[in-house]
Amino acid sequence: MSQSPKDILDKLEAEEDAVDIIPTGMPSLDRSTGIGGVPRGCITHITGKTYSGKSVMGIHVASETRKAGGVVMFADLDRSMDLRYMRAIGLNPKDITFVRPCNTKGILGLVRFATSWEVDMLVVDSFTALQEIPNLDHTLFEKMSSMVSGSKTALVIVNRIYSGAKIAYGDLIDQISHISMFLTPRETIVDNGVIIGHDTDVTLLRNRFRPLPKKPISLRLIYGTGFDIVDSRIDVMLQDGEIQRKGSWYYYRDQNYQGREELREALRNTSGNLLTPTKN
């Protein structure tokens, strides 16, 4: 007996609601994915332009995993992991396992280990550093996808520009990924004449769970600190109408703030109390 379009849609929505996810730590990005973060048993591809914050994004997701008591492994293929960012974002390097496989055989062994032992998060950074690049075929990606599928492990592949403007095997990785995002650095952030960071656009290129957003989201990357979580939360609160904006003025809980920076500082200085949603 054939199913009606409504039955099919209800089944798909039920399957999507059952997805086990790990938040990225950035509310606006979690909302953009439509499922609340990075899915377990799936591959997430983080790629983009140089210095856009790809590795920092991986650290944020790993940090959220540890906050929930999960087990994290980092494949530091680039040998350039920034421990300063880890500590600033709240991830203790002593609480995670670092590995440095040097070839695809090592990567496959690592993925097999992570999925077999129910490691919660495996971050591979950066895929481009593998010795075999650019002499790989689709077999590697099919094997990784097969191992991860249905497991408890969220596999995050960080991938940088390889040659010129080429993303190493970006199309093949996207084909096995459930979530694929592209990061682009934009305007610099200046404080008292000193550059302290830059805005980053995050564009979802692939999402097997929800329709793609019509436009990228913007995140603030502060050097040495990470992505600005409070600013990301403000974007969500503006969408939900919890914060009102008129020109350069922001209105929240009967308080007025001239400029977004003033609002950000007020929310930070209250230890998050002002970020607690009001009860209807």
Structure, briefly:
With 280 residues, the chain is of the alpha/beta class. Helix content is 33%, strand content 29%.
Structural class label: alpha/beta
Q: Beta-strand percentage?
A: 25-35%
- At the third CATH level, what is the topology name of the largest domain? Rossmann fold
Poorly predicted runs: none
Please state the CA-atom Rg, rounded to the nearest Å: 20 Å
Strand order of the largest sheet: 5-4-6-7-3-10-11-12-13
Mean pLDDT reading: 88
Helical element count?
9
**What is the 3D form?**
globular
Biggest sheet character: 9 strands, mixed
Helix content: 25-40%
Number of beta strands: 16
Write up what this structure looks like.
By secondary structure, the chain is of the alpha/beta class. It has two domains: 5-228, Rossmann fold (3-Layer(aba) Sandwich), CATH 3.40.50; 241-275. 33% of the residues lie in helices and 29% in strands. The protein is built from nine helices and 16 strands. Helix 2 packs across helix 8 and helix 5 (104-116) packs parallel to helix 6 (138-148). The radius of gyration is 20 Å and the shape is globular. The model has no long low-confidence stretch (mean pLDDT 88).
